[in-house]
Amino acid sequence: MSEASAPEEASGPETASGKSRKPLLIGLVLALLGGGAGYFAVSSGMLGPEAVEAGHQSDETHAESAVPPMYEEDGTSDVRFVELPQLVVSLGPDATARHLRFTAAIETNTASEAEVAQLQPRILDVMNGYLRALEPADIEEPGGLFLIRGQLTRRLQLVLGEDRMRDLLVLEFVLN
């Protein structure tokens, strides 16, 4: 009986290790095929800067009808900057700095420049409200400026309309 059970034990572990290698081999083959396909796509020009530029050119024709252009096709720019007054916001007792000094400008087009300047009190109100609601950790973290800029841009686009505001430029962001 012991002789009959010995061959079964020898074949048992061998099949178990064969089953555990099968997904590994399949994954390796798929990874090699994917790498080869990616290399072929990049080397043939299907992917890469040229393909991306061609995609952007076809997207621009559709985008021109939906969004008014901010830059003229002849190279002259239709961009104006409306500078906003400096804001000083107290940060609270838990902050390492006591105040935030913030200055920004709104990038707009010539046609909307007067409207943006006229809505300046509402713009300052929205900015002041958002900056005062920030926690000290939001301001002091390394990527905090990018988050604040994005949030302010979205809020100002709601106030002004997306067609009047292209971007928010942060001119001064000082903690003291």
Verbal overview:
- It contains six helices and four strands, in the order ααβββααααβ.
- Strands 1, 2, 3 and 4 form a four-stranded antiparallel sheet that branches.
- Helix 4 packs antiparallel against helix 6.
- With 176 residues, it is an alpha+beta fold.
- The longest helix has 42 residues, at 2-43.
- The protein has helices at residues 2-43, 49-66, 113-118, 120-133, 136-140, 144-160, and strands spanning 79-83, 87-90, 99-109, 167-175.
- It has two domains: 2-66; 79-175, Tetrahydropterin Synthase, Chain A, CATH 3.30.479.
- Controls the rotational direction of flagella during chemotaxis.
- The chain crosses the membrane at residues 24-42.
- It comes from Roseivivax halotolerans.
- InterPro entries: FliL.
Total domain count: 2
CATH topology of the largest domain: Tetrahydropterin Synthase, Chain A
The coarse silhouette is elongated
CATH top level label of the largest domain: Alpha Beta
Q: Specify the number of helices.
A: 6
Topology:
Blueprint: H1 2-43, H2 49-66, E1 79-83, E2 87-90, E3 99-109, H3 113-118, H4 120-133, H5 136-140, H6 144-160, E4 167-175
Antiparallel strand pairs: 1-3, 2-3, 3-4
Helix pairs in contact: 4-6
